[in-house]
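Dear all,

This email documents one entry for the complex benchmark we are building for the journal club exercise. For each entry we list the sequence lines for every component of the assembly. Then comes the predicted three-dimensional structure of the complex as a token string, followed by one or two observations. Please use this as the template for your own entries, and keep the labels exactly as they appear.
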Amino acid sequence: MHLGIFAAEGPNGYQLASDINEVYWGSAAFFVVLGLLIWKAGPAIVKGLNGRTERIQKEFDAANEARAIAEQSLSATSAGAPDIGAESARIKAEAAETATRLRVDTAARANAEAAAMKERATNDIQNQTRQAIADLREEISSLTRASTEALVAERLDAGSQSGLIDSYISSLETSNR
Amino acid sequence: MSATDSYADAILAIATAEGDVSGTRSELLSFSKELQNNNELRSTLANTLLPADTRNQIVDDLLAGKASNTTRSIIGLLVNAGRAGDLSQIVDAFVGKAAKSSGKRLAVVRSAVPLSADQQARLSAALAVQAGGPVELQTEIDPSVVGGVVTTLGDIVIDGTVRSRINKMREAL
């Protein structure tokens, strides 16, 4: 607006000569408006800027806090690194011990099973031998009994038979006394 | 009461009425043993598809001159009733009832040769002491005992046979 005012030319060819009052009034209005703006909008602008500053500060603080936590974690991880190595060694040792124990156990079990199988086989052979002997003895005994019975029956005459019966009755009579 | 007991009671009643329980018992036991040892005879007499007259004729032929009319009638009755297969059990039940009715305990005596009258009397007296009362002997000839005697008195078996001695000797071997 001022530029427009100063650019305007008067009828006498001099600029601003006849409109100096407009310049004064225009300037005064400008400053009034400027003052109003500063008076009314200034606090809001300042408040907004302050809020933005606070927000940025908070974000900055949060970032710093996150950084601190990350650094703390990093330091803790770095500090725990030797324990991981020890744990790894311990697990390896334990695995080796377990493997050794399993190997020993498996060998012992296999040996025990082999011994048991051998014992069973030995027992089976012994049982079969005993059974064969028993069968043979039974067979011989049966044959002996049959032949003995036949022989005794042939040798027992009427007198012997009667004697056996008398002997039986006598033993009953004796046991009754 | 089972059918076996019913028949045994009937036989005892008939034998008692005829006054020859002992003789009937002896003849029935002989026939029962014969039947047990002869599968063909047992299956023939038990075969109800055969006419009753045929089966009766077989019984008559077998017992002619060997058994009293009472015994033949009893066996004929059992065969006609289709009880030939149960005859042994019926006879055993009859023998038990007969002994019981006479107030005596039954002693079954098996030997390879018959016992003399004197031996029977001595044995009966000796067994009476064992049984604690009078005993009725039921003697059976059984060649399988070889020699000696085996007596069954209720649940008691008194074995004095040569066969048992041979068995003991065999077990000792």
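Observations: Chain B has two domains: 3-97, 103-172. Residues 21-37 of chain B form the longest helix (17 residues).
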